[in-house]
Write a structure and sequence with these properties.
335 residues; mainly alpha; Ribonucleotide Reductase, subunit A; 11 helices; 0% strand
Length: 335
Amino acid sequence: MILDPELDLTLRPMKYPQFFQLYKNSIKNIWTTEEIDFSVDFQHLRDRLTPQEAHLVKRLVAFFATADNIVAHNLVLNFYKHINSPEYRMFLGKQLFDEMLHVETYLLLVDNYIPDLEERKQAFDAFQNIPSVKMKADFCFKYMDSIDSIDKTDTDEKRRQFVENLVCFASCVEGLFFFGSFAYVYFLRNKGLLPGLATATNWVFRDESMHIEATMAAIDAIRAEYPQIFDEKLETRVVGMIEEAIEVEMNFCDDALSHGVTGLSPKLMREYLEYVADQRLVQLGYKKRYMTKNPFPFMVLQDVQPLTNFFEKRVTEYSKGFDTSKAAVSFNMDF
């Protein structure tokens, strides 16, 4: 079973082909930081951004600078340790690669967007010294620390705690914190600003959407094998966690928009976060809680639109094609 403490290293017979398919899908999406052109961004940062927008961008890159490292930390310490599926571990290997690529991307952003060395240091240390970013990091660490002492998921309570960790990172960290930040980027893109950041965010957005899909698939598999842990107690905890995540993200919003940005407001951001939270609750098998509409037209089709660079004619779609006609993997083969 998927949370069995006895390590399973056998891919035949394949018990969880859905995870293997997610792995195959994920390796079609490979890109590198060398493909991102930030040259126009530098001109925009110098000549076109208002001081209020510049403050927003600095807060965004400060959050991005360590966020994916926190996600990767949890992947290694918890996801890889407790999800007993070799197929899922294959996907996690690719996800870890994605997270390191995102870390490299945001390293470039901080190095190039923030020329002042002291400000740059503050951005890299934001999870410790910028209160609105620290609150997000503390939220993550709380749900990592809560299962620190769990060596084996050999009781229902331990399994329930681990599911909470999965929910935290899929629904709240990648699914809410990151999506809130993506909305700020796409707001700026909608104004014709920072095309390099928009391109990078397009690709990160697709990666993160796939990471969320995979974690939700893992939760579905756990629910099928351990239905008894998906009780009212867990639902209450999950709803409370998502409510807390919205408030944490709104604290970041109040900071990021503290100088005022024309066209954005904390009210609109709360509506968007509630809209996204409802999508996460549905993915988890729960009812919508907020019934809020998406207030941002520029976000409506973001997850399905082709990734053609908004500012150039060339296509930056990075899904790689593979000829599997001669090397297809069967999902039902035994030794």
